[in-house]
Amino acid sequence: MGKKIKVGLVGIGNCFSGLIQGIEYYRRNPKQQVIGLMHEKIGDYSIYDMEFVAGFDVGINKIGKTINEAIYESPNMVNWVPKQKMPKSSGRVYESPLLDGVGIWVENKVKPVKSKKTQEQITKEIKRKLDETGVEIIVSYLPVGSDKVTQYWAQTCLDTNTAFVNCIPSFIASEGKWGRKFAEKKIPVIGDDIKGQVGATIVHRTLAKLCDDRGTKIEKTYQINVGGNTDFLNMKEQERLVSKRISKTESVQSQLKQRLADDQIYVGPSDFIPFLGNTKLMFMRIEGRQWANIPYNMEVRLEVDDKANSAGIVIDAVRLAKLALDRKMGGPIIPACAYLMKHPPKQMSDPEAKNELEKFIKG
């Protein structure tokens, strides 16, 4: 067994619940192939070398609980391993500042704690817990639109020499000012906005690139997503979606030799359908022209469990951040950002990013 990677979690929602339960699922089923990773081992690190030593949240029903208890609390929906069979964790969930982390649509579901502490007091406590638990890497899975809280946690990482994995479309790794801060302090950062294993945007950009590479003329395209968890409920608040739309749209546009006009491409979350739960549906269409100006179109319907789709990617991101820490590298880890994230500092095609990341892993 390798040395443990000590991980802190920000936003103890469905995504982390699926990630942690998935690791336990494989632990209980050792003959099962571990699906969804680049490699079973990255460096010396397997999926079992991650230790979740601290969590941070604003939900009154999660703060103070152990991580293994908190991941089953409402409004979380993942239940792949029965709660009573989940091993007890020594890591606990502590209070995070609220700032812009809870949107108006989800406030009555999340039930944020009415804190009596000042932000300064909360920050002091967070830094103490990071030090006590030895957190090396913070993974942020905050709700979309949590720009101020994301910047708060990025600064906390800088203040405490902790690596940062940013899974949401609030731009840190891909924003020059923040990227330079992490580089100057020799702290790794991987972001922004995680690509699913086989998610809506990875499928869309791959098919758009295929059409482009095969010489067709793409004229217009859309991607519509619906789901039933708090992620989609949160995204009903249009003001929180600005960076999400930029991230998803640029991920597709970056694969085209000639950009589409803004009014000829739509990529974005579209609606909340409660009974879908963690099921995410994507509807995609590409319209264009072939030889002799003859029109063609394609439509794709993708149905995935939204949380199973991201867990393996996060596990790879954590192990790659640890590899960078071991090698004393700082700043955005470009190949990891390009392969794992929708809005990296440098866009690449997925085969190119995978090739560059394999080189990085080999050192």
Explain how this protein is built.
- The protein is of the alpha/beta class and about 375 residues long.
- The chain has two domains: about 250 residues, NAD(P)-binding Rossmann-like Domain (Rossmann fold, 3-Layer(aba) Sandwich), CATH 3.40.50.720; about 110 residues, Dihydrodipicolinate Reductase, domain 2.
- The chain is built from twelve helices and eleven strands.
- The protein has a seven-stranded parallel β-sheet with strand order 3-2-1-4-5-6-11, sandwiched between helices. Strands 8-7-9-10 form a four-stranded mixed β-sheet.
- α6 links the parallel β5 and β6.
- It is globular and about 65 Å long.
- The model has no long low-confidence stretch (mean pLDDT about 95).
Helix and strand pattern: EHEHEHHEHEHEHEHHEEEHEHH
CATH-wise, what's the superfamily of the largest domain?
NAD(P)-binding Rossmann-like Domain
Described by its quaternary structure, the protein is single chain
How many angstroms does the end-to-end distance come to? 21 Å
How many helices in DSSP terms? 12
CATH-defined fold name of the largest domain: Rossmann fold
Rough shape?
globular
Spatial order of the strands in the main sheet? Answer: 3-2-1-4-5-6-11
Q: Whole-number average pLDDT?
A: 95
Helix content: 25-40%
CATH architecture of the largest domain: 3-Layer(aba) Sandwich
Annotation, overall tally of beta strands: 11
Q: Spans with pLDDT under 50 lasting ≥5 residues?
A: none
Under the CATH scheme, which class of the largest domain? Alpha Beta
- Work out the radius of gyration: 20 Å
Sheet of most strands = 7 strands, parallel
